[in-house]
Write a structure and sequence with these properties.
mainly alpha; 4 helices
């Protein structure tokens, strides 16, 4: 909108803001569902019996079932959704698109790490 006359920018601004809010709402619900899925995976830690794994499992670097499920979920989310939502290059994306998706990714990662701890 920087290249438009001020009058045109003023007229278009409310409509573009409404579109931006709808885009945020639709993408935010996807990230909320993913957060719930990842939290569910992490909660499986309470079902894990670490005493039965023994020293051999720790030496084999085998992941516990809950971490395997967590990794699968993150990989699925990344390949199916994030690869389509995040801009491939900085120059190819507008600041708002980058802000919506990048901010939500940071928030999701922060929440998952905090939930795990």
């Amino acid at each position: 909108m920087g290249g438009l006359p001020i009058v045109a920018a003023d007229v278009m601004s409310p409509a573009l803001d409404a579109i931006y809010r709808v885009a945020c709402d639709s993408v935010t619900s996807l990230f909320q569902a993913m957060r719930e899925r990842l939290e569910s995976c992490i909660l499986q830690i309470h079902e894990q019996n670490f005493a039965t794994l023994g020293m051999d499992a720790a030496m084999d670097n085998n992941a516990s079932p809950y971490t395997e499920e967590l990794q699968k979920s993150i990989l699925h989310f990344r390949t199916e959704f994030l690869s389509r939502l995040l801009p491939r290059s900085r120059s190819a994306a507008s600041a708002r698109t980058e802000f919506i998706c990048t901010g939500l990714v940071r928030s999701l990662a922060s929440r998952v790490l905090t939930f795990f701890i």
